[in-house]
Amino acid sequence: MSVPLPPDPLAGRAGGSTRRPRPLRLVRAAAGLVAIVLVTTACTGSSTPSQTAGAGGGASPAASGAMTVYAPGGTYTSVAPGRLAEMLTGKDFILVNVHVPYEGEIDGTDAFIPFDQIAARRSELPGGPGARIVLYCRSGAMSTEAARTLVDLGYTAVLELDGGMIAWAEAGFAIVRQPRG
């Protein structure tokens, strides 16, 4: 005994299909939508649970203040301003301002290396490729590029301030402004 199918609401309409979608087509369409959402999320800087890292392991980026970022050659860690402030209390890393031109700095900065010269001047980073290095700039764009460069060069403990000095100041932390020669 066969059960009749309900009428197709699109049948007979201009541009409508008279064929019923097959389950495989629906699965492919759903997979395509998921892919679009994931790409859009990645491009806007949002994270998925599989990208999170930090002291909390599986904790959310907001809870841990850190997020693993995948780059060609490896990964680096993006840290929130509050997390960097905590890290500065027991500083065990090299803090590098990569912004050009100079627009201020975070207290405790160890080096000033322009983002586009980080590869050529990596000898100025003590400790070699295993050294823990935190990069920052004004908005996060230059430090992201510098972090990707260092990861591509084999550095394994690279961190980058998410949102740069703008996010740092918006979180209520001070920016030191002193002219550099």
Terminal CA distance: 89 Å
Pattern of helices and strands: HHEEHEEEHEH
**What is the number of beta strands?**
6
Mean pLDDT: 78
Separate helix tally: 5
Please compute the radius of gyration using only Cα atoms. 24 Å
With strands numbered from the N-terminus, the spatial order across the biggest sheet is: 1-2-6-5-3-4
Task: Enumerate the spans where pLDDT stays under 50 for 5 or more consecutive residues.
Answer: 37-61
Strand content: 5-15%
Descriptive notes:
The protein has 181 residues and is an alpha/beta fold. The protein contains 5 helices and 6 strands. The protein has helices at residues 23-44, 61-64, 81-89, 141-152, 164-170; strands spanning 66-71, 74-79, 94-97, 111-112, 133-136, 158-161. The protein has a 6-stranded mixed β-sheet with strand order 1-2-6-5-3-4. Helix 4 (141-152) links the parallel strand 5 and strand 6.
